[in-house]
Amino acid sequence: MKKMLCLLLALVMALALCACGSSAQTGTTDEEALAEVQAAVDEVADDVAAALEGVTDDAAAIADSVRVDVTDDAAAGAAYVFLDEDLGTESYAIGFRLGDEELAETVSGAVMALVQNGTYAAIGENYPEIADYLCLTADDVDAAAIPEQGSGDPDYTFKHGFDLDYPPYSYLQDDGSVGGFDVELCQAVCEYLGWGYEAVPFNWDAKDMELNAGSCDCIWSGFTKEGREDAYTWGVTYSNNTQGILVAADSGIATLADLAGRSVGVQTATSAAEMLEDSQADLAATFAELRVYETYTIAFNDLKAGAIDAIAIDMTAGAFLIANEG
Fold first, then answer.
1. Spatial CB neighbours of 268, under 8 Å, sequence gap ≥ 6
2. Which end of the chain is more exposed for a tag (fewer CB within 10 A), N or C?
3. Global pTM?
4. What is the mean pLDDT of residues 81-88?
5. Other CB atoms within 10 A of residue 32 CB
6. Architecture per CATH, 80-87+243-323
């Protein structure tokens, strides 16, 4: 009987490996692959119960030991997670220099045109971490505010200012090219209007200096409007977001209260950093350390290395880092 059980358990493992291998070769989604594995496991468990019926009173218990929950085991394998409690919500908009109302209206109108023709949603599909946070719909479109396609000055080059390392909104890719949702949307705006496009990446804490010096025409990079309403001329609000706490799944940190005595990282000059200085100052006071980083990518590397215990970060950027971990 022991030999039979070993063979059956080996069959379970083989079925699981076959199903997973099939998903990689055929393009089956992870969810579909897990469903196939679970169905195979359940079938073998039923065979175990039938084979042992009348041989042992423990047939059902033995079968249940074979009938594992593959989906739960897969979910349990997540290396990094967000706490259920968040730090607060915010909205992302395009920030222009004070007084640049005409430019802000033109760019915002072009964004609305891209909402209307489906380009806005299509770009969002390239960034699944962002898709659920996009807030513009066809109902928000004011047709009278939309500029005619190609109506922009063809000799004008729009200088897009953005954080050089803030995926999935804006970042420099390994080959030196620029990418991200905000980058693609801005490029689409320039194409719609007939403008040239120039990328102006910078360290985030230099954004105001770059804008005021005229190095760029706007700050468009997951830029939070709340608390800055009077500091810029604002274009359209195109996305919502939530600030959260990212931790290793096995850290033992389950609530904000568990951060007491811990080392927490945050990117300089971000909304999360400002929240921890203002609305969440009492929470920050419980930390052993609030370590400020130049970029979230560096902070995430320190989290993986165990140099810090948590990161205060917006959900979309954190989800991107998790999805691309390793």
1. 204, 205, 292, 293, 294
2. C
3. 0.74
4. 97
5. 14
6. 3-Layer(aba) Sandwich (3.40)
Task: Report yes or no: 220 and 169 within 8 Å, Cβ to Cβ.
Answer: no
Nearest Cα to Cα of residue 295 among 321, 326, 315:
321
Question: Closest Cα partner for 95 from 167, 160, 183?
Answer: 160
Q: Residue 27 has what pLDDT?
A: 47
Pair 161, 215: CB distance under 8 Å: yes
157-163 and 289-293 strand pairing: unpaired
pLDDT per residue over 196-221, tens digit each? 999 999 999 999 999 999 999 999 99
pLDDT classification of 168: cutoffs 50, 70, 90: very high
- Report strand pairing: 310-314 vs 233-248: antiparallel
- When the candidates are 3.40.190, 1.10.10, 3.50.50, 3.40.50, the CATH number that belongs to 91-241 is 3.40.190
Sign of CA pseudo-dihedral 169, 174, 176, 177: negative
